[in-house]
Amino acid sequence: MVGGGVLWAVFAALNTEPWDSPYGWILVAGLGLVMGFFGKDKPMVWPLGIFLGAALFGLGGFLKSLFFYSAGGVNFFFPLGLIFLVPFTIPAVIGSFVGSALRKATKGV
Q1: CA angle at 31 for the pair 27 and 35, rounded to the nearest 5°
Q2: Residues 21, 84: contact at Cβ < 8 Å?
Q3: What would the pLDDT profile of 39-57 be if each residue is shown by its tens digit?
Q4: CA distance 21 to 1
Q5: How far apart, in whole angstroms, are the C-alpha atoms of residue 97 and residue 14?
């Protein structure tokens, strides 16, 4: 979850969303690959953690805009962002399974 939150925080610092960047899906897949390689034998858990971390980061941004109203107004795009986040997690799933397979392949070496 920390990895997903950090990834979204980095893109938030750059004033963009990962799906708006040409490199966002590559970084999500790379994060999934790293988590799948170093994680335990459950490659489906790591993309869910990335998704939850990103969702919690988005929820934090929504709550911040709701309770600490600023000149930008309240961010009511949070539910829409969650919908976009679901297919954007697919590269993390692929990366996680590839990372898990690489770990298993190099384990015997």
Answers
A1: 170
A2: no
A3: 877 888 888 888 898 888 8
A4: 21
A5: 29
pTM score: 0.79
Query: Which whole-number Å values give the CA distances from 68 to 8, 54, 73, 74, 100, in the listed order?
Result: 20, 21, 9, 9, 42
Whether 26 and 77 have beta carbons less than 8 Å apart is answered as no
For the chain, which residues score pLDDT lower than 50?
none
SS (H, E, C) the chain: CHHHHHHHHHHHHCCCCHHHCCCHHHHHHHHHHHHHHHCCCCCCHHHHHHHHHHHHHHHHHHHHHHHCCCCCCCCCCHHHHHHHHHHHCHHHHHHHHHHHHHHHHHHCC
Q: Name the nearest CA neighbour of 72 among 23, 15, 19, 17.
A: 15
Q: Would you mind telling me the total number of residues written for the chain in this entry?
A: 109
